[in-house]
Structures are given as C-alpha cells and as structure tokens.
Amino acid sequence: MFEFKKFSINQENCAMKICTDACIFGGYINVSQSKSILDIGTGTGLLSLMIAQRTEKTLQKPNITAVEIEKDAFLTAKQNFENSIYTDRLTIFNQSIQDFSENHFSTFDHIISNPPFFLHQSKTKNNSKNLALHSEALSFDDLLKSIDKLLSKNGKCDILLPAFEMDIFIKKAKKYSLFPQKKLIIYTRKEKEIFRVIIRFEKKNTQNKEIIENNFIIYKSKGEKDIELNRGYTEQFIELLRDFYIIF
C-alpha cells in the first residue's frame, strides 16, 4: 500500500507500480479549466486520484473517467477509487481505449495519458506488464485516433513519454491536427540525460511558433549542500508534490 496525504494506492496486483514520473505528471498538468477529464490507461488510478484531490476545492469539480484494459489493474484502480473520498467523481471502464472510443459519444475537454512506450524491446513473460509497457497493445496511431474522436474542439491533451518516443508521437500527432503547446523536460539530476517529457497538445497549429518549454529536476546533484535533507529532492520537486507526499 502506497500512502499519500489524502488517499492510498493499493498496487499489489498491478504490473506497473507507482513511479516518480507519474507523480510529477499528476502534480504538474493544468486542470484548472477542465470540467470533464479522461485518463487513458489509468493503471492503479494514481493520476485520476491526484487530479481529484487537486480539484476538490474548485467551484465546479470535474468528473473524471478512467479507462484500463488490464483486468487486475482495473479491479485495483476501482477499489482505490471506491476507498477514496473522491469516489463520487470517479468512473472507470475495463476496456481498451479503442473500444471505449467507438462506444462513447460525448467528448472530454481534457485527456491525459502515460501510454505504453516500448516500441521494439522484447516482451516479458508477464502478460499484464506487456499490456502496460508495450505499444503493440496500444499503438500511438490507435491512441491518437481515440484522442481525435474523444477530445472536444477546444480541449487539451497531456502526454508523458521518454524523449525518443515523444519525438515519434509529436510527428504522428500532426496527422490528427494535434500540436504541442507546452513542454516540460524532466531530468533526474541536472547533469543527467533527459528522463521524461510531458507535452500539452491542442488543436491549435503551432508549427511556426516556439512552444513554451521548462525544465524540471528531481534530485539535487551530488555535492550540493543539504543533499540528505528531504532525501535529496530539489525544492522544485518538493513544492510540486508537497500536497501529496507524506515525507514533505
């Protein structure tokens, strides 16, 4: 059981456990104007619960819909939702996003996803983990087709991927008239290679404009003062996740 300040995550039966980049994603994305949110591939339900907490004091609390194809992850997320104080705003479906998009006729003004990203690596013997990690279960094209159908005209879509896969995703997204608006580049430490990238996509053509770009660093570099305080996390990280992590 992973304890946050206002909710708990049971992840025992989920192939993909809670990870730092997902927590950053949930704390970072701007959902202040969102009335309906779709979480594609929810896994443990972490992102949906983080967003529910972040919007608990807003005048119009958004309804959050989660979709998860893997049965054990679906059951786990459903339990996590039901055990939270946000259960009345959370709905989950045990479907592929392809099937969901075919049968869901309303649109969302915000879509979020940390999609499978292993494009070529060999699979494991764990079928649940393969579904969570390998893009054969959900190709970027299939994901984009679903986003194109489910995103409202003025909607926003946030995607979390490694840098190489994000470059591929950006190129494919143009075919669906989805263009980057804002980029967050995540580093484990400032001297390291890029760890993950978060990009906000909208149906606004920015091909000839510079998108807003910011850097985010998780850990202080070795040798920096007080590195042992707060387990060596940067102030940037602490401030982002102060409302969630018990250690802060």
TrEMBL record:
It is found in: Cytoplasm. Keywords: Cytoplasm, Methyltransferase, S-adenosyl-L-methionine, Transferase, tRNA processing. It catalyses: adenosine(37) in tRNA1(Val) + S-adenosyl-L-methionine = N(6)-methyladenosine(37) in tRNA1(Val) + S-adenosyl-L-homocysteine + H(+). It is an enzyme of class 2 (transferase). Its main location: cytoplasm. It comes from the Bacteria. Its EC number is 2.1.1.223. GO terms for cellular component: cytoplasm. One of its GO terms (biological process) is methylation. InterPro entries: DNA_methylase_N6_adenine_CS, SAM-dependent_MTases_sf, Small_mtfrase_dom, tRNA_Adenine-N(6)_MTase, tRNA_adenine-N6_MeTrfase. Residues 31-131 form the Methyltransferase small domain. One of its GO terms (molecular function) is nucleic acid binding. Pfam families: MTS. The keyword Transferase applies. CDD domains: AdoMet_MTases. The keyword Methyltransferase applies. HAMAP family: tRNA_methyltr_YfiC. Specifically methylates the adenine in position 37 of tRNA(1)(Val) (anticodon cmo5UAC). Belongs to the methyltransferase superfamily. tRNA (adenine-N(6)-)-methyltransferase family. This is tRNA1(Val) (adenine(37)-N6)-methyltransferase. It comes from Bernardetia litoralis (strain ATCC 23117 / DSM 6794 / NBRC 15988 / NCIMB 1366 / Fx l1 / Sio-4) (Flexibacter litoralis).
